[in-house]
Amino acid sequence: MDENPHNNIDFRGVWPPPPAGFTAEGENTADINTSGTKRAMPEPIAGYKWNWGAFFLNWLWMMNHRMIGLGIVFALVQLPLAAIWVTVQYAVFVVLRSEHLDTSGNATPDSGTLRVLMVICIVWMAAFLGDLYLGYCGHKLAWRKRRFLSVEHYISVESLWRKWGIICGITVGAISILDVLYMALS
């Protein structure tokens, strides 16, 4: 039996290098799923510019895309902000219609009330900047942090996030507008 000692040697990756666009195993790199590996996004996904699911449903979206720690931080900041949003609107309304009058008859809100409102607004603006970042970089973060079965799977998952993000954003916006109108008319 003639046994060749070179049959058990793996020459892949030594020489010659694989042609551009192919791995050493001969697979086309365009067909390789790189999701969840912090590598470059495929062309169809790189063309997406804004992620509505990440913008409107930020902490839920982050937890679903394997960014649990950051999602918890966003939830701890934004859930109390959402819970007191109506209270803040009412407080602004009260400050604008304050009964505190100075000697000339102009309304002068309590300085403590203004400080509280200022801190709440600063925290809200910082959270909003985080929302803008997620909206802008959401597709890149989603592809790099979560494993998807394919590009088509990614597109279907993110289209659901987009749909529900827009629905929730419109709903919250409408409720806020109705709340402000109600306070203005009462």
What can you tell me about this protein's structure?
By secondary structure, the chain is mostly helical. Helix content is 62%, strand content 0%. It is elongated and about 75 Å long.
Number of helices: 6
Q: Distance between termini?
A: 100 Å
Helix content: 55-70%
Class inferred from helices and paired strands: mainly alpha
Domain unit count? 1
Given as residue ranges, the uncertain stretches (5+ residues, pLDDT < 50) are 13-22
Describe the main β-sheet briefly. none
Counted beta strands: 0
What kind of oligomer do you see? single chain
Note the beta-strand portion: under 5%
Please trace the helix and strand order, writing H or E for each element. Answer: HHHHHH
Rg, alpha carbons: 27 Å
What is the element layout, followed by pairings?
Blueprint lengths: L42 H4 L5 H5 L1 H7 L3 H29 L14 H35 L5 H35 L1
Helix pairs in contact: 3-4, 4-5, 4-6
Distinctive features:
186 residues
Question: What would a concise description of this structure say?
Answer:
The chain has 186 residues and is mainly alpha-helical. It has 6 helices and no strands. The protein has one domain.
